[in-house]
Amino acid sequence: SAMYPHIMIKYNIGFDSYIPPGEEVAEGEFFEAPEVKHRFRKSPPSLYRKMLERLLEARAKIREQMKGLDPSSPEYIILDNRQQAVKVLANASYGYLGWVGARFYMKPCAEATAAYGRQTIMKANKLARDYGLDVIYSDTDSLFVKYVEGRVEEFIKKVEEEVGIELKVDKVYEVLFFTEAAKKYAGLLSDGRIDVVGFEAVRGDWCSLAQEVQTRVLELVLKEKSVQAAVRYVQEVVSKLRRGEVPMKELIIWKTLTKSFEEYEVEAAHVAAAKRLMEAGYGLEVGDKVGFVIVKGPSDKLADKAMPYILAKPEDLDYEYYVAKQIVPSALRVLKYFNIREEELMAGRRQMSLFDFTS
């Protein structure tokens, strides 16, 4: 639970509690980080410690308010976004100290926090195995084990006693799908919801249909445990796209103008679409989101084919672009791990592979 903020609180890590090399301090008056040997005074509380305590307290209050609310309700979603924002602020604190551009830059603070983090997660891993728990995956500040009721709770108490860091069961998955990338996985929660981490389904630079396809593919793989059902579903979407049966609103791509037109070295698709909006008499400024679609055109350059959706007609849409660059790639982010290839999803037929003859 908020491992890095808790480490900074526990060991009083901060730019104002740091003891420079060579400075004499009485034994027992400081903490010394493993590996890197950076030292921090035990008192008075550092500015970071006081700040993090307030942030963690604020997040705990928000999470308490969320209890009993329907996860799909507007109230729950607002509170969840709020607690996530507080979480990001707290978790980013140690990394900010290690950024050379930070106002309170002090690299030893970041190095010490990371060293304590490595020590903590390694101890937790060892204790989990000592308790007979099957450790599936461990990364940065998380530990995935096969859930054994009772034993997990005992393990949590032991870690809190021996390591001094709070552990909590964050989520219990019925089925969990990992990729080769860190922090990129999806799981089926016990209440039937799909929890997605690191996939495009939770990013905003894909059209809503691509996000919907990836989410549905994950549902079919995790809930129905059927890769072929997922393949058939994608093939059906591809066919509907090619027949022009998908509403244009599902194909809009939204991108934010992060700087003025003159500052873009290469003309991106959303910048070209924004310029077309301006030519049509619409006002835009930095920070605005531009909604555009890809239409057919004489050039293959995406910027030449990006049209503001309010100026586009359905018959002008480049459906093959959406098939090849949005729908199929979003599905393959998941299905490639099951030996499904691009041609299979685009052609609508099963390609035989070595696995078919060895399974």
What key phrases describe this protein's structure?
globular; 359 residues; three-stranded antiparallel beta sheet; alpha+beta; 11 strands
Could you describe the 3D structure shown?
- The chain has 359 residues and is of the alpha+beta class.
- Helix content is 45%, strand content 13%.
- It contains 13 helices and eleven strands.
- The chain has helices at residues 3-10, 47-66, 74-91, 93-97, 107-130, 151-162, 208-222, 227-242, 269-279, 302-305, 319-335, 342-347, 354-358; strands at 18-19, 30-32, 39-41, 135-139, 142-145, 173-178, 185-189, 194-197, 253-256, 289-294, 306-308.
- A three-stranded antiparallel β-sheet has the order 1-3-2, with helices on one face.
- Strand 6 (173-178) and strand 7 form a beta hairpin.
- Helix 1 packs across helix 2.
- The protein is globular, with a radius of gyration of 25 Å.
